Amino acid sequence: MTTTKPPIWFWIISVLALIWNGMGVLAYLGKAFATEEMIAAPPEEQQVEFLMEFPAWYTAAFAIAVFAGIVGALCLLIRKKMAYILFVLSALGAIIQHIYLFITVEMTGTQLVMPILVIAVCLYLIYFAKNSIKKNWIN
């Protein structure tokens, strides 16, 4: 199977996907390995988020979302169609994680922006990877 040379915007989107998912990994690691000093540093409203108890399956969904996403972005950059499967896993993890948040945490309009954006980006990356496979940009 041969691949077609992808356009420059393929590479731009792939690098942006890597950066986006890298920020997700950093957010996960920051939450997973937060020390007491790190928790005490931000304003009190933000400290509540660190002190909330989340079920183990929530943390697992968060980890799957970010790590599958970053590996999927790397697969895009090396032009492997495994990116599609990894982005589907990432989206499932993010959707499970955020549905739990929508149900258990009272959020106002501005607080809903990031969770909705995360899900939208996940869904777009699935579409982008599928379209890249169809156009033989990745194999």
List keywords for this structure.
mainly alpha, 139 residues
Description:
This protein has 6 helices and no strands. It is mainly α. The chain has one domain (8-134). Helix 1 packs antiparallel against helix 4 (56-77), helix 4 packs antiparallel against helix 5 (82-104) and helix 5 (82-104) runs antiparallel to helix 6. The longest helix is centred in the first third of the chain and has 25 residues, at 8-32. It is elongated and about 55 Å long. The N and C termini lie close together (7 Å).
Summed up:
The protein has 139 residues and is mostly helical.
SSE inventory with pairings:
Blueprint: H1 8-32, H2 36-40, H3 44-51, H4 56-77, H5 82-104, H6 113-134
Helix pairs in contact: 1-4, 4-5, 5-6
Number of domains: 1
Return the structural class.
mainly alpha
DSSP summary, beta strand count: 0
Distance N to C terminus: 7 Å
Residue fraction in strands: under 5%
| Overall residue-averaged pLDDT value | 90
The helix/strand order is HHHHHH
Q: Which geometry do the CA atoms define?
A: elongated
Ranges where pLDDT stays below 50 over 5 or more residues in a row are none
Largest sheet: number of strands, sense, barrel closure:
none
Helix amount, in percent? over 70%
Tally of alpha and pi helices: 6
Structural Rg: 17 Å
